């Protein structure tokens, strides 16, 4: 089976790990293409940092810091601390020592002229993602950076998210570089040639929303012969982890399973989805959507461990 996933960081990575466990049992030999949001990418201390790509790579490669959900396990921060002593960079954004090796390798290859796609493939060799049938692609090889309009002007998304914990009122998200961006090689094909396209419970605004905004990607979803189904990142009116509700508020969408589905829209009426999986807390939303022609399902969508997440993935694939 060929499955394509449009993913942010922690939510998308946890889901994809469960999907792999499920497919290893039910459809061995499946090929999974993960298209990652790169809107969170930034230059920091002269190195290129790609938070969502790295969260996916570490999670699927078995190296992630499990409790934190991102970064490397058994990490230290000696370099960051020493940089802070020079007063350099952003002291609120810790670059772990092991993580820094990833950024240095990536930056060297980018400087040598490799694309982000090629660079990502090289990094993933070490973590043996191909052995699991996984190909990790950036949404675009051109830099696209999400900035947030706050009262004082534009700041990088990570500054708003990590430093200010999304507490500064966000007036608007601006994707700098979007107009010049193209889907990375393989992205449109992976959507067009898949047996199923999945939206994991990633942030609908600054993760999946950014991927959809890359010119050509939304059209690929609306026209692919494959079914497109997703999981609500909102359970009972709240984002499980993180601050997705603040992002939704900025674009005028309510933080509810039903509102997020309607924001994506049903493909039959010009949107990008055919089906939507919601948590048992939102069974009512599923009923309302089903009455409007959506394929829906209801299950416990809290991704508490890999076996449970594999069952969530199985329920989502049943909608296909
Ligand atoms: P980020 O890039 O690290 O912020 O990660 P993503 O965009 O991939 O996913 C973040 C979103 O996943 C959060 O906004 C949550 O709403 C959602 N999420 C996280 N954990 C869970 C979970 O266990 N179940 C569900 N349904 N959603 C989750
Ligand atoms: Ca992210």
Structural notes for this entry:
The chain has about 325 residues and is of the alpha/beta class. It has one domain: CofD-like domain (Helicase, Ruva Protein, domain 3). It is about 40% helix and about 20% strand. It has 13 helices and 14 strands. The strands form 4 sheets. Strands 5-2-1-9-10-13-14 form a 7-stranded parallel sheet, sandwiched between helices. Strand 11 and strand 12 form a beta hairpin. Helix 1 packs parallel to helix 2, helix 1 crosses helix 13 and helix 11 packs parallel to helix 12. It is globular and about 60 Å long. It starts with a strand and ends with a helix. The model has no long low-confidence stretch (mean pLDDT about 95). The structure holds guanosine-5'-diphosphate and calcium ion. Guanosine-5'-diphosphate binds next to helix 1 and helix 2.
Number of self-contained structural domains: 1
Strand order, sheet with most strands: 5-2-1-9-10-13-14
| N- to C-terminal distance | 12 Å
| SS summary, helix count | 13
Any idea what the shape is? globular
Give the assembly state of these chains: single chain
> By CATH's scheme, which homologous superfamily applies?
CofD-like domain
CATH topology: Helicase, Ruva Protein, domain 3
- From N to C, what is the helix and strand string? EHEEEHHHHEEEHEHEHHEEEHHEHEH
Low-pLDDT stretches are none
Mind telling me the C-alpha Rg? 19 Å
| Approximate helicity band | 25-40%
CATH architecture: Orthogonal Bundle
Strand content: 15-25%
Bound molecules: guanosine-5'-diphosphate, calcium ion
Largest sheet: 7 strands, parallel
Calculate the mean pLDDT score and round it. Answer: 97
> What class do helices, strands and sheet pairing give?
alpha/beta
Top-tier CATH class: Mainly Alpha
In total, the number of strands is 14
């Amino acid at each position: 089976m060929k499955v394509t996933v449009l993913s942010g960081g922690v939510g998308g990575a946890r889901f994809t790990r469960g999907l792999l466990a499920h497919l290893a049992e039910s459809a061995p030999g499946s090929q999974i293409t993960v298209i990652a949001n790169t809107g969170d990418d930034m230059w920091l201390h002269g190195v290129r940092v790609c938070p969502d790509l790295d969260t996916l790579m570490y999670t699927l490669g078995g190296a992630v810091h499990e409790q934190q959900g991102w970064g490397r396990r058994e990490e230290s921060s000696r370099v960051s601390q020493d940089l802070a002593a020079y007063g350099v960079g952003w002291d609120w954004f810790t670059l772990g020592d092991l993580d820094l090796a990833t950024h240095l390798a990536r930056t060297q290859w980018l400087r040598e002229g490799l694309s982000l796609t090629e660079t990502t493939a090289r990094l993933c060799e070490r973590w043996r993602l191909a052995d699991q049938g996984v190909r990790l692609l950036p949404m675009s090889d051109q830099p696209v950076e999400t900035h947030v309009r706050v009262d004082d002007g534009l700041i990088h998304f990570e500054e708003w998210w990590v430093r200010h914990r999304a507490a500064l009122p966000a007036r608007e998200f601006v994707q700098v570089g979007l107009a010049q961006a193209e889907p990375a090689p393989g992205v449109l094909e992976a959507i067009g040639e898949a047996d199923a396209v999945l939206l994991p419970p990633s942030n609908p605004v600054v993760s999946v929303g950014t991927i959809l905004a890359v010119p050509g990607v939304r059209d690929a979803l609306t026209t692919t012969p494959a079914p497109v189904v997703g999981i609500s990142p909102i359970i009972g009116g709240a984002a499980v982890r993180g601050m997705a509700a603040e992002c939704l508020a900025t674009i005028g969408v309510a933080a509810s399973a039903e509102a997020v589905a309607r924001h994506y829209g049903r493909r039959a009426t010009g949107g990008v989805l055919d089906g939507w999986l919601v948590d048992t807390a939102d069974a009512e939303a599923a009923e309302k959507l089903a009455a409007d022609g959506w394929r829906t399902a209801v299950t416990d969508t809290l991704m508490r461990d890999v076996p449970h997440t594999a069952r969530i993935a199985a329920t989502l694939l049943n909608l296909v």
